[in-house]
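Lab meeting minutes (informal)
Scribe: AK
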Amino acid sequence: ALPISPDKPFTFERKRPDGSWIEVRGIPLPGGGFVRTYVDTTGRKHAEETQAEQLALMDQIMRNVDQGIVVIDAEDRMAGFNRRYSELLELPEEYLRTKPSLQQTSKLLADRGEFQGLPTPVDSPADWQAMLAQPVTHGLPKVYRRRRPNGTVLEFRNTALPGGGSVRTITDVTERVRSEEAIRSEEHTSELQSHS
């Protein structure tokens, strides 16, 4: 039994033997006693349980998928990410939890040399950062690859969201690129040998 104070309102939920849920609320009366209401909350409780199961499943997916994923809200802030995103770009999770803007993150990456030597369709580093911060506005391709200073090749995919913002996935395609380069090299060598 729940301890109920005679002079304080109370609310609790109880699961009944048939599996349904009841919310009980009590409001004390000035002269003593309570007014109690009983509300069947079975539908809401089942919806909450389903939602909790879906969130737990989504959490497992986000923790175990090989791609880095970030959700960028309509204000260009990084609203959510998975651990793989942090790992692939070597961005501390503590930093990402502050929900930085894309512009802040692009500047951080540029300052540590992530974009050095890359051909860009803009004239200045500031324009490059603006393009990265707002890819849709500045015409950044939906899919592109970038080689990091450590040699890793990442493939970026940007998908706009209906209410604004976007979802960006990042995949480490280093091995695929190495294989493609090896095949091209073999084809080139073979072509040279056939002409000699």
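Next up, CB showed the second protein from the same session:
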Amino acid sequence: IRGSGLVGKVGTDGQVLTSTGAGLTQGFEAAPSGGITHADLYRLNANLGTMDSGFNALTDNWEQADTAGFGLGDLTAAISDESSGVFSFAATGIYRITFRAAFGAETADVRDVTVRIETTVDDGSNWVVQTDTRGHTESHGNWTKNQAYTCCYFDVTETTNSKVRFTMDFTATGIYVTAHEESNQTCVDFVRLAGT
């Protein structure tokens, strides 16, 4: 670049051409770090049977997405472990957590459903409600069906005791949480946006 002082100079692998400061010539420096490094997607692979009224933690039938074509590429999996619906994180950082719940009932009655994301920083001794989103079932043939969507940000400052779970509250009995083993009906995704 004429007049830049870079004639005959080359950077090394991983460097980028930058301004080295006001009034200074350009130079090669290490590329800035950051960006999305971790992501993950889990879903229920089978319906959960009729749920009782009150808050129910979704503890069964979770799987990491494995449909053909799904992949994380160069990203690292965000979740290190799932046990009975409690998810542990692979690394510290600020995470965006999204929960989409699909549900239905075998009657045409409108029934309210609340979906929550709950987090803990003390390994489950205390759970904090991060989101509280409501939906209801609507008539769809012989079933009533609908979905609810919610998300939050969670600052994971350490990975031993910081965890997340997903709960649903039904105002009546007889509501199913619906799922599929090859597509995302009831599902959660995790994206690490930045360091803590």
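CB comment: The chain has no helices and 17 strands.
No objections, moving on.
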